[in-house]
Amino acid sequence: MASQPAAATRPGDSTNHGLRVVVAWLVLSAIATPLVAIYVGPLIPPGNGSVQAQGQTFSNQVMTSLVTPVLCLMVVFFGYGLIKFHLRRNEAVLDGPPLRNDSLIQVLWIVITSAMVLFLAGFGTYELLKDGAGGGQGPNPIALPAGHKTAFQVQVIGQQWQFTYRYPSFGGMESNQLVLPEHTLVAFHVTSLDVVHSFWAYELGVKADANPGVDNVAYVTTKGPMVFHVRCAELCGLWHGYMFNNGVVVNHGAFTHWATRALALYHSIKGYVNRPADKGGAPFAYSYLPEPTRRAG
Amino acid sequence: MRVGVKLLLVAAAVTAAGVGIGFYVSHLTTLAGSPSYTVPVQNVSGHPVVHLEIQTVAAVGPQLSQNPDWVSYLIKDTSGQWVRKTVWNLPAHATVHVTIYNFDGASGLRNPYLARPQGMVGNRVLIDGKPVNAIDPNDASHTFAVPAFGLIVALPGVADDAKNQCGYAPCSLSHAHRTIQFTFHTTTPGHYRWQCFVPCAAGWVFGFGGPMQTIGYMDGFLNVKA
User: Fold this and answer.
1) Shortest Cα distance from A85 to chain B (angstroms)?
2) For B93-140, what is each residue's pLDDT tens digit?
């Protein structure tokens, strides 16, 4: 016959463990949440490179701050359980006391989690609709930032394996450099000439899929001069990992200077590009289709 | 089994898997399928100068590949042989004189903008001995492009009705060909990919499979070393 087991709840233990857990949780949350909000939050990507990037960082800051008490509860609950209720040496394994319904806890659980989810849904929707949050919105965007009708337009063209950029306000001038004027609302028109790519201007907080035949619009408001990274974020073939370069935001004078120079370089190819598509040209359009070529089709 | 031994075994397995994945990725992204070729360097007044002699062929042939019908780049090695190696070791901050003999016909560029030579000395190339600052994108057969250097050179193709066209590589200069010459400078040491932008892989979806996605044919690396 097996030896007599020790008591499941140790005899004489009148401690209110629930109260202890709640107090420890509240104390830890009261300390950790402000620390996370103040010190960790601003470090969360993508940073303050644009108005939209700043909005994303703020959203991440709010969500991380909200999740901190939840994480604290888990840490305290499991930590307390491990320390207080672990099996001691020579102690027999016993089933715990039966769990019973507790209406108050159930109601609190439903109310708190529902409130959090509804708040996050509302907050996220507001942040998204405010200005599009730097995301690709397809050809008919609904989250339109103020002044979108006069936004500076830049077309982003993905191709295996490089991004090039066209500026419709400069006669469809194309360049392999992405240069943007400072403090300007920019409308990116993202498309592809072949497979699916994804335009990810990290520090600007812009990410938009590049699909052939589709004009995917993303808005961003630049801030001061800076260098940012552009990467492809959609696995697109052999050189996907090398499909990156730098973009720059410059002051208006420097932008005009660059555009004048880029236009002069573009001049030698302009005549060929502006031919009709059936003659092998590619006059500016908001999307293109990967035409089969003479031999490879 | 003791917990310590279990932990040790798990750590060893994770380390072995990590090393294996690292080796695979490193091999895949550097030399996969193509041994490197160290280009001879000349010293001109203390400045490194190299000459690259390359040919582009419509079909690499059974002598040089198990995929005889694939389009490919070849490079002339120090013994004067044309070899299928597309990973080239070059010195940093060097002047690189490039001569490309193109034996292939035109496919046409999907993006006509890439027909403008850029990133080389003077932003122009010599085509059959004549300076050119743009070619008709429809006439492009291939490109030689190192995007990290901003270097793009579109290579015009041999006319469809040209006589004595080359079948299988290696091709000789007695075959119909175009000659493209330009000069560029290498930058700091690094691992720079080069590629063709013309969808020239016959028989593949939109011309961008097979040799366009395999190092050793229409893609490679410039291993720029100090």
Assistant:
1) 21
2) 999 999 999 999 998 898 999 999 999 998 889 999 999 988 999 999
Structural domain that includes position B145: 36-225
List pLDDT tens digits, range B188-226: 999 899 999 999 888 888 888 899 998 899 999 999 998
A242 in B contact zone (CB under 8 Å): yes
Question: Residues B19, B70: one domain?
Answer: no
Both B53 and B108 in one domain: the answer is: yes
B16 and B63 fall within a common domain: no
Partner residue opposite B147 with nearest CB, options A162, A269, A291: A162
Q: What is the ipTM of this complex?
A: 0.84
Residues B118 and B8 occupy one common structural domain: no
Q: Tell me whether B134 touches chain A (CB under 8 Å).
A: yes
User: Which of A157, A273, A280 has the CB atom closest to B108's CB atom?
Assistant: A280
pLDDT tens for A23-37 read 999 999 999 999 999
**The model scores a pTM over 0.90:** no
The DSSP-derived string for chain A is -PPPPPPSSPTT----HHHHHHHHHHHHHHHHHHHIIIIIGGGSTT-SSBHHHHHHHHHHHHHHHHHHHHHHHHHHHHHHHHHHHSPPTTPPP---PPP---HHHHHHHHHHHHHHHHHHHHHHHHHHHHH-TTB---SS-S-PPTTGGGPEEEEEEEETTEEEEEEGGGTTEEESSEEEESS-EEEEEEEESSS-EEEEEGGGTEEEEE-BT--EEEEEEB-SSEEEEEEE-S--STTGGG-EEEEEEE-HHHHHHHHHHHHHHHHHHHHHHTS-GGGT-----S----PPPTTT-
Q: Is B215 in CB contact (< 8 Å) with chain A? A: yes
